Amino acid sequence: MAARAETVGRRRPRAASSWLDRHVRWLLVSPAILIITVLTIFPLVFSIWVSFVQFDFSVSNEHPWVGLDNFKQTWQDPVWRHSLVVTLVLATLCVAVELTLGFALALAMLRPFRGRRALMVLIVIPLFISPVIVGGFFDLFLRRPFGPMNWLLSQLLQHPVSIDFTIDGRWPYFSLILADAWQWTPFVFVILLAGLSAIPDELYEATEIDGARPRQSFFFVTLPLLTPIILIAVTFRFIDAAKLFDIIYSLTRGGPGTETYTSSYYLYQQGFEFFHLGQGTAGAWMFTILLTFISFWLIRRLLKPVED
Amino acid sequence: MSEDNTEDLGGIFERPIGRRDFLFDSAKLMAAAAAAGPFFMAAKQAAAAEAASVGGDPIATIAAAAAKKNYSGVTISRIAESGPQALEPKNFSGPLWNKLTGGKVSVVEAPFAQIHSKAVAEHLAQSGALDVIDTSPAWIPEFADRGVIIPIDALVAKYKAKATFADLHPLYRLLGKYKGKTWGFFDDGDVWNLYYRKDIFANPKLRSAYRAKFKKALGVPRTWAEFDETAQFITDQMAPDVYGSGEGRALGNPGNQFYFFQQFRNSGGRFFNPTTMKAEINNAIGVRAMTDIMKEVKASSPGIEKLDFISSWGLWLNGKTAMMYAWPPTGRISENYAQRDKAFAFLPKSKIVGKVGYALMPGKNGEHAGSFIQCVSADSKNKEAAFLYALWATSPSISLQRVMLPYTLRDPYRISHYKSKAYRALWPSAKEYLITLCEAANQAVIDMQMTGAADYANALDREMTAIYAGKDPKKGLDDAAKEWDSITQKLGVSNQRKAYAEFLKLPGATAANTVAKLGLAVHVK
After folding, report:
1. pLDDT in tens, B193-226
2. Whole domain around residue A218: which residue ranges?
């Protein structure tokens, strides 16, 4: 009896060890799975449920099933449709401006010159500033009558300038693009500079021997080789710019009226200021799907040169 | 009077606020925020409050004694508006409560509109993170219906504290009530008055120019038409040194709906058709009110559309504005009473001390805008302790000390506050100030107080900023009305009809049922 007990006792640690061997991979990944389930999968599934029930603090504490009503109500809200247009227009313009300026800066900074390193540090500083602070800074900079912008323009144009850059006409869009470009052009610049630096000098030497002019070198060597890098920059920036929120929040608050409401700002307000959570979540899903399509298209374009 | 004549007007013009001043004031604001941690308790008020809590005031005494006996060591958390509003519990009532009862008060700060969202978020999460919620009367129906706050009638009866309501001005007595229950203790008399520069209105050259132009004497405006006319006249004569009017009109700060609600109802407007619940803000009365508001914007300092309220106070204190309609702290800051405290260093020292007169709003009906009621959170784990703190803090004697604190933004609301000899001695014209506040409460119209109030307010606020930016007033109001109708649809027409009917019963819901019109007016001498 004692011998049997001894055998069982010896077998147990061996069995445990073998179980451990077989399942150790699951044990190692289980904390990550648990965290992802709790922090990602559950909220995701919960948000799907919220978008199909009435989850509106102002209406009731009950959450009856409402089918597609939240989606319909959001879609029928003219402010939401306007915000989608604003989002696409602003994101496109921001990316276009940042790409143009970033490219120009990268070309200008490609060759070494005195003070280049210090200048590069200065150029990338805006990247490290919180977008809310950037919005606040531009609010003070552009504000009438105290902000220096009107004064600077008055000095420059030699006649009094009094523009409310966050209210008058189309100026609020200009202000937002200015603030966003100020912060994110350095990002595009850094990526494009890395891409430009990676193009071998031999290629330019070969084109020079072939008698190509600098313009031709640019269009037939630089641009084609840089296209994948440009697409990376555009993809990252577009996805980020489409979520534009912080600068809007601190610079225009979506105003005047709802003129500069982006989708993110609209959804924030619906969800976390008014607690129309059903409608806000339905809108967030619509926006995610739209953004996924655009991102998918951009990534396809990005991968195309690699596939070719 | 031409611009050249401005020099002849002697001392009435102040140095224009320049960019350097603006930046300097902004820097001071940041420095004040950094320095806001230290203990600012006003010793005189603290001593009086302490004496009231140990026998001087029966309600304060009962509350403090019960808390000391049962809740010593309990920490309650109170959410208050960030800035000077939060300084009061941080530096005055919180430390004093701790000294008297052994209980602690931890203060959560949030901007005005975010108190609403934070309270709702904590309620949805059932975190129990908040015990006392500084609730705007406009939110009471929603908070009560959704179970964010609890009725306090049973606790009031338990502690025999009903007398605390008797001393409230009649305008404020019913604001904490909803569906026959009491939901909190009223705590801030936020009624608007007209503050004007006596020296400008008394200036002989300006008066003669006014008489020459309008064939009548220059006087403090009594109607909105007179206000617009006078404000524009002063701007035409004195700008850029002084502008006729100057209320900050940034989106959400303070909330442009207040301006519209005030003038719209003063002209006889009502928010909805009580039967169909269709919005009526875009009718002829609404368009006229909005057109008048645009005249006020035109007569104000450039950039006023983007200035928050605190910044417009900066203009006023620098002597750049001749007339300002605003909350009661305007009277205190004009006399430098508030700026004696470091906590108010974010505002410039007043250059208009002794020059400010107080009057009822044009058309008499000033807006009772914003304001706070101290409510007990339904998710609180220390409901009774929270109740006792709110009861104590808003009791007649303690509340008097709190509204007299130099750095406070709490404004007088009890009849005993208006009559207080101590308050009347704070600056030479304090008595006149308190009498005007009491009279203003008699005539005031109150904010919309029904479910969806925040949504309706936001829709109107947004459209008003669009109108400031050039949108046609009628079109803007039509769009706002459309949005109001869709909010009503979403909340249920029948529910909203009942809610609006309830709201209309409150004194001040319309210009036709102010406290004065109901025969409930209180007059103090």
Report:
1. 999 999 999 999 999 999 999 999 999 999 999 9
2. 71-307
Q: Are A130 and A279 contained in the same domain?
A: yes
Give the model confidence (pLDDT) of A161-213 as tens digits: 888 898 888 899 999 999 999 999 999 999 999 999 999 999 999 998 989 89
What ipTM was predicted for this assembly? 0.72
Condensed to tens digits (0 to 9), the pLDDT of residues B26-51 reads 555 445 544 443 344 478 888 999 88
CA distance A242 to B29: 34
- CB count in 10 Å sphere of residue A110: 15
Q: How far is B463 from chain A (nearest CA, A)?
A: 5
> How many A-B residue pairs are in contact by the CB < 8 A criterion?
92
CATH topology classification for B40-189+370-424: D-Maltodextrin-Binding Protein; domain 2 (3.40.190)
Q: Are residues A105 and A209 in the same domain?
A: yes
Q: Do A39 and A100 sit in the same domain of this protein?
A: no
Nearest Cα neighbor of B422 from B44, B124, B169 is B44
B468 vs A167: CB contact, 8 Å cut-off? yes
Question: Within 13 Å of residue A120, how many CA atoms lie on the same side as its CB?
Answer: 18
The answer to whether the Cβ–Cβ distance between B147 and A61 falls below 8 Å is: yes
Nearest CA of chain B to the CA of A74: how many Å?
12
A190 shares its domain with A108: yes
Q: Is A164 on the interface with B (CB under 8 A)?
A: yes
Residues of B in contact with A257 (CB under 8 A): 462-463, 465-467, 469, 471, 476
The string of DSSP codes covering B281-320 is: TTSHHHHHHHHHHHHHHHTBPTTGGG--HHHHHHHHHTT-
- Domain boundaries along the sequence of chain B: 40-189+370-424
Average pLDDT (B81-97) is: 91
Strands laid side by side in the B193-197 sheet: B323-326, B193-197, B356-359
